[in-house]
Amino acid sequence: MVNAPSPATTERAQSQRSAGPVAGRRGGTRHRRHQTVVACLFLAPTLLFFAVFLILPLGFALLLSMSHWAGFDLGGIRPVGLDNFTRLFADGSTFLVPVLTHTLLFALGTVVLALTGSVLVATCIDRLRFQGMWRTVYFLPIVTTVVAVGNVWKYMYEPGGLVNGALNTLGLGSVAFLQDPDTALPSVVVVQAWASFGSAILVLTAGLKSVPASYYEAAALDGAGPVVVFRDITLPLLRPCLLFVCITQFLTGLQSFALIIVMTKGGPGDATDVAALEMYQQAFSYGDWGTASAAAFVLFVVVLMVTLAQLWIFRRKGEDA
Amino acid sequence: MIRRRFPWLSCLVVVTGAVLTVVPFLDMVMTSFKGPGESGRLPYRFLPKAFDLSNYRAAIDQLDLPVLFRNSVIATTVITASVLCTSSLAGYALAKLRFPGRNFLFRLVLSTMMFPPFLFLIPHFLILVHWPLAGGNNLLGRGGAGLTVSIAALVMPFLVNNFGIFLTRQFMVSIPDDVLDAARVDGAGEFTVWWRIVLPQTMPVMVTLGLLTFVDAWNEYIWSLLVATANPNLMTLPVGIQLLQDYVDPASTLPIVMAGLVLSILPVLILFVLLQKYYIRGVVLSGLK
């Protein structure tokens, strides 16, 4: 049963049936109507929530993105059309460069680091002993609050912290990781990659397990070296998993700003300012709710395009197979 | 392959990765024992001079840790309970009841999973501040502080979880209809069927969902930060600890902050290590993290 009949058709069906012979079926219709009532009860909390926290907010955000509003009194909302959007993309606006470019760099950097690292570890961890233990260890950052991750790394990046301590031991000079505009963004990217590493490893090890051992044995009989095996067997068979990790991590990277709030608040200057953070600060620090909502929608469109690209690529992969 | 040819190399890679993962945690624990002026001093030393618990006492006093813990525990518990309850109810309706618009609703649940959370941040906050007849607001939602006066502000936007509905629905679809029909014939109402037959069978997926929700709610930062700026009494653990870190001289308070962080992440870490099988299955199923 794909589409249950609407109440109106049920009504009609029932009146037709009451004229006709099939008396036993009338109970079925009553049962169905009873199920509709019960379903409404079961779904009531969810539907109420959807109305208040899903549909209303979307409308509200859309309204705000086309208004000027300094907060407080709802009566002060003044519609301005697409003004907020044109200002975001006007000359001299920092939104496109550097904020959006930072966002893309942040997401891209995270993906590249997390992916290379996790491919390396996942291929090595495959069929190793104590897998459960390694999994637990690699997963610790994922269940840890961003406040702990951010603060620990922030402290580790300090002149008297662990990273500089290690550099000094190796005879290298200290680096002002988070204070130097040139190193601040890469430093935060490293932390984000560190924090998202575990889930990538999880997906990739699951993918590696599905590669039949006979492939490796055949390759070994043919005398293929490890690099060749990795390039010609592991990597192609792992491609769906790689793609999945790549795209989900990219999406997360585009949206996340909690780590940046904790570690740098977008500084020094605007060296680590990303789009979601810009939205947050426009609204809650500068009280420019219209611009903030417009920025949110622009970022939403970027995220949506990435999501659609993801669906498109996966569908094409499905046709290949 | 690489593993078989060069076992020592793959071992080295895995161990190096594990060390890099664990070292920040160890550094946090070590720093939490360091005395005043001992952290941040050059040259860097990994181990503290003495394992002194005074930072933990200071964290409990200065951070007002009991209050932060109370807020975090209440918010997390309410969110987890609500998500479990609403997900299993809605999941049952979407999987096992026939009603008009069922497929449309299921598609709505799926498609709204794609909306990024930051899009809702501003409207959710405004909706709570302008909640009618709460916190001194009039019927039109003006004049008062709205729901930000109560702890409800921390939990409201998280009471229903689309992924939770999706997960339970997928799981319940696989329960055979015969069993449910047999119970119905015996005179059981839909609520009894849900409570007596469906819920016990969905226990594993409930544990997974509960754990995922618990960890996410416990670690939630951005929304709690917004709520706490409106009403400081509603600070949760992450927000309170970050505030101390931001406003007090980091050099002197750093060990206290680290002690607070250790205490705040302990409950989740313990829960994760005990129930990691369920948690990891959830992450694989959600594919989101």
From TrEMBL, chain A:
GO biological process, alphabetically ordered: transmembrane transport
Biased composition (Polar residues): 1-18
PROSITE patterns: ABC_TM1
Entry-linked InterPro entries: ABC_transporter_permease, MetI-like, MetI-like_sf
Topology with respect to the bilayer: Multi-pass membrane protein
Entry superkingdom: Bacteria
Disordered: annotated segments: 1-30
Compartments where located: Cell membrane
Keyword Metal-binding: no
UniProt keyword annotations, A-Z: Cell membrane, Membrane, Transmembrane, Transmembrane helix, Transport
Keyword set includes Cell membrane: yes
Protein name: ABC transporter permease
Taxonomic classification: Bacteria, Bacillati, Actinomycetota, Actinomycetes, Kitasatosporales
Automatic annotation (TrEMBL), chain B:
Keywords per UniProt: Cell membrane, Membrane, Transmembrane, Transmembrane helix, Transport
UniProt-listed Gene3D superfamilies: MetI-like
Major location category of this protein: membrane
Subcellular location: Cell membrane
Superkingdom to which the source organism belongs: Bacteria
Any Pfam family hit: BPD_transp_1
Coiled-coil residue spans: none
CDD domains cross-referenced by the UniProt entry: TM_PBP2
GO cellular component: plasma membrane
GO biological process, one term: transmembrane transport
Membrane spanning residue stretches: 7-26, 73-95, 104-127, 147-167, 193-215, 256-280
InterPro entries: MetI-like (IPR000515), MetI-like_sf (IPR035906)
Segments forming domain ABC transmembrane type-1: 69-275
Entry membrane topology: Multi-pass membrane protein
Family in the record: Belongs to the binding-protein-dependent transport system permease family.
PANTHER family, alphabetized: ABC TRANSPORTER PERMEASE PROTEIN MG189-RELATED, ABC TRANSPORTER PERMEASE PROTEIN MG189-RELATED-RELATED
Full protein name: Sugar ABC transporter permease
Natural source organism: Streptomyces alanosinicus
